[in-house]
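Tutorial sheet, problem 5. The two components below are modelled jointly, 662 residues in total.
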Amino acid sequence: MDKSLTQLPTPTFDDLAYRRASFGTLGEALDYAALGKKGMNFHDARADLVRAYPYAELAADARAQALRLIADGVQPGDRIALIAETGAGFAAAFFAAIYAGALPVPLPLPTSFGGREAYVDQIATQLRSCDPKLVLSPEGLFAMVQQSAEGLCAAHDWSVYFADRAPAAQLPQAQPTDIAYLQYSSGSTRFPHGVAVTHEALLANLAGHAHCMEAGDGDRVVSWLPWYHDMGLVGCMLAPLANQISVDYLATEDFARRPLSWLTLISRNPDATLSYSPTFGYDICARRISASINVAERFDLSRWRVAGNGADMIRPEVMQAFVDVFAAAGFKASAFLPSYGLAEATLAVTIMPLGEGIVSDLIDERTLSGGSSARPDPRRPTRYRAIVNCGKAVPGLTIEIRDEAGAVLPDRTIGRVYVRGLGVMAGYFRDPEATEAALSPDGWLDTGDMGYLSKGSIFIVGRAKDMIIINGKNHWPQDIEWAIEQLPGFKAGDIAAFAITTPSGEESPAVLVQCRTSDVDERNALREAIRNKVRAITGMTCVVELVPPRTLPKTSSGKLSRSKARSQYLSGEIQPFDVAA
Amino acid sequence: MTDRAQVYARIIELIEPLNPKKVALGENTSFAGDLEMDSLTVMDLVASMEDEWDIVMPLNMLPDLETIGQVADAVTKLVKK
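Model answer (structure tokens):
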């Protein structure tokens, strides 16, 4: 049955007065959106409408389902883990938890062939961290999720679970300072950290970035971003809802199969579109266009008002390639809107002024590596790197750049990026140690990123906290190191993983492993075993280098220093063993 | 009528352009381990298989498919439905 013939998408305009996320709680935001005609629209891989889900229907479903949770003994503050499949099932369950005063915790979906054990294990690790009352999943993934939940919490297929009717009850009244949800996109797979965000912080951030984008009536959001990631959940589900904007969704796995369906949805919208993507999303669309596709006939991107960039390092040459391909379809380079943010600050920290597009600074790489050890070699040409201007702080947030001793640095000096204000997380869930490390008592968040300010605009040059981002997905060196420690004969401190930049500008993981054997064949075998182990556990193909014992640098407190290991490896100070090819 | 042998042979053809290192392909060749395919390349292959046989491979099926042989089995089953 072709449902697209029988139903219409939710409208872009209605009569409800626009309110810019000015609500006390997320539940109130949905109550208000439900008074209008707008809502979510789910599309299949070919961009055909499968289901229109007005906010009014979502609110009614969520209220009924909240009663079911309460009847099951769910108390305010309990966690409800949810597999974040893009669709009505997750949206309703998420807001059911909100209405019941519980904390929804979105968990990831599998993304590729194979890796069943790794997925089951990842979900189990996150369940142990958030300690939920129950975990709910779509039918298709239930067998795996049930396996993950064994011995940890109850698990249900959400359609079966919510089919049971529950008696009427009073829904609890949340306070703006209550924690609204937990977000797991920022922690590593092996050592997850749940970012706890209050209603107040969330809504302040949603109002802030709607203000920067001048979002409102007449806009439509188009998104394929996963709901288990902050940009997908906060930026493309909660933001449009709290700002009463209709959204067209394409599931992430459908985007991965047919990326051009994203652009088809944008082309089809007769009004203004707001749509975000990490760099790789623009990259795969541009690459997918072959000579046989008539871009001007097939797409119309002239009403794409905000083409947001974020979630990974913005690569100007990729954005230029996108413009080169899609200018024929009316795409305007000025629609690009660079931004910078992180889950620990709810989502957005800075956004570029509208209409300015991608503006970059050319910086000498040596200046970037900053300081004492970098000695200019006059025989070598200066290598410049383009750093993208990510814009100014969203209203309510203040930024400081500090040196290692904590002193505030002047303009155009690289240091660590600190953020304070509305939107900063309450802390990491049940992890006072990690919270204390990231958040000072007076409310300054150490983002772990490195950058500089110039006339109030931020330029991000890299990350101090060692995260590796590949195709928009965050990977953690701890996970790679942990994988190798599972091999006999290796211990923590023998291994340093970090990201290196390939000549094409992409990030790739590399790992240095201290190795005691001098036999070349043994070394070869060892290297192969390490590569296989890392791939089996993390799914990543990694550059593996064996180095002599006691070569990996330590910090002053005796911990392994990944950033020092990285710079010594790149400068040639650490010499890996030769391994026959 | 599509039988498994035909499906398998066609899958091998579809993988060829995604196999720049020319890894030898067989029933037990694994996508992650042997072919070192990242998730984007895998989804690209899934899309071309879906187009080839006019099928839909649901996301929850993917974690159980490690090798080319297992994918051939899964596609054959979907085609016969």
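Marking note: DSSP finds 18 helices and 26 strands in chain A. Full credit if you identified this.
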